[in-house]
């Protein structure tokens, strides 16, 4: 494909607008031509800001448009399956935000639809495109730290959970919305799959959820045994308030790799009155802005080169399977075995 890829954005909320800006301004070989959002105002205003000619409140309008080659799906997770299956059937390439869907069965349908239509399907694990995460992957693959023994990955977000997340059956909760990234990092950096896992969780800050959703949790720890023999530990927390704190520690037989810093920049101000002060990373939007651009560029490059995306529907499915196993473990208090899968 030599001409530029014409992209439609479906869902122009927090993450959608980041994709929209990346495609409209930074990605080479792509054009943002359409925006859809369920909210009339959001759709119209975003299309105007992003320079897209077409806007709609019904995503079918974008899927019917011959001038749209690919869509980026950034709606609430529960809608991903329907939109992606229909988009694939209409011959549109798809970049779908994480979590891929709510259930493994939905992921299977999405993968089957993309395969049947011969379109590219990429899942939005943008940390794989972050320069620091890529450097860590290269160091591990070079053998510099020997065999991977332990991967600890945590994501702590400052903001309180959206109310729609309180119902774990509808949202899969923080393991899905927050820890999907850490789950993907664990699989990616080890190149191995989970064999068994156990998770523990509690609600420490989300007072509003307590009476109606007693099983909602805003802090979770998950221990994972991988087929390679490596051990994983994932921690997810919401509403920590102090900043956006994403960190990975990898320990090998000969060394270690660390990714992530709470420091927003390298400036430290020291005074007699206030002591030492430094800026904290405020949000994932700031930390991963360039990773979004690189991710969206990679999606467009995969379409133009007619190659598989770097992050596939299979990656999305395996993360959803681990989320489901983690929630089962929290519910039952038991260790959960994952289906036998080859690495
Ligand atoms: N990769 C990341 O780090 C990251 C970060 C944030 C969110 N996400 C994912 O992105 C998705 C969206 O999350 P968000 O935080 O941007 O949510 P959001 O609520 O800010 O935005 C969602 C948007 O989708 C719109 N919408 C709802 N139903 C729609 C429909 N039927 N058709 C078109 N638009 C519709 C809403 O009006 C809203 O503007 C979720 O799957 C979330 O997990 C990923």
- Bound ligands: nicotinamide-adenine-dinucleotide
Helical/strand content category: alpha/beta
Question: Largest sheet at a glance?
Answer: 7 strands, mixed
Please trace the helix and strand order, writing H or E for each element.
Answer: EHEHEHEHEHEHEHHHEEEEEEEHHHE
Find the count of extended strands (DSSP E, 2+ residues).
15
Fold-level CATH name of the largest domain: Dihydrodipicolinate Reductase, domain 2
Q: Distance between the terminal alpha carbons, to the nearest Å?
A: 32 Å
- Unreliable spans are none
Whole-angstrom Rg: 20 Å
Shape: globular
The main sheet orders its strands as 12-11-7-10-9-8-15
Whole-number tally of structural domains: 2
Please, what is the CATH homologous superfamily of the largest domain? Dihydrodipicolinate Reductase, domain 2
For the record, the CATH class of the largest domain is Alpha Beta
**CATH architecture classification name of the largest domain:** 2-Layer Sandwich
Mean pLDDT: 96
Helix proportion range: 25-40%
List the helices and strands and how they pair.
Blueprint (H helix, E strand, L loop, with lengths): L4 E6 L3 H13 L3 E7 L3 H11 L3 E3 L2 H6 L5 E4 L6 H10 L3 E4 L7 H14 L3 E3 L7 H11 L6 E9 L11 H4 L1 H5 L2 H11 L3 E9 L16 E8 L4 E7 L7 E8 L3 E4 L3 E9 L3 E6 L3 H4 L1 H17 L7 H20 L3 E2 L6
Parallel strand pairs: 1-2, 1-4, 2-3, 4-5, 5-6, 7-10
Antiparallel strand pairs: 7-11, 8-9, 8-15, 9-10, 11-12, 13-14
Helix pairs in contact: 1-11, 4-5, 5-12
The structure holds nicotinamide-adenine-dinucleotide.
Describe the protein in words.
This protein has helices at residues 14-26, 40-50, 59-64, 80-89, 104-117, 131-141, 168-171, 173-177, 180-190, 284-287, 289-305, 313-332; strands at 5-10, 30-36, 54-56, 70-73, 93-96, 121-123, 148-156, 194-202, 219-226, 231-237, 245-252, 256-259, 263-271, 275-280, 336-337. It has 343 residues and is an alpha/beta fold. The chain has 2 domains: 5-127 and 289-312, Rossmann fold (3-Layer(aba) Sandwich), CATH 3.40.50; 132-287 and 319-337, 2-Layer Sandwich (Dihydrodipicolinate Reductase, domain 2), CATH 3.30.360. A 7-stranded mixed beta sheet has the order 12-11-7-10-9-8-15. The protein has a 6-stranded parallel beta sheet with strand order 3-2-1-4-5-6, sandwiched between helices. It has a two-stranded antiparallel sheet with strand order 13-14. The longest helix is centred in the C-terminal third of the chain and has 20 residues, at 313-332. The structure holds nicotinamide-adenine-dinucleotide. Nicotinamide-adenine-dinucleotide is lined by residues 10-16, 36-39, 42, 59, 74-77, 79, 97-99, 124, 126, 177, 284. Keywords: Oxidoreductase. It comes from Xylanimonas allomyrinae. Residues 5-125 form the Gfo/Idh/MocA-like oxidoreductase N-terminal domain. This is Oxidoreductase.
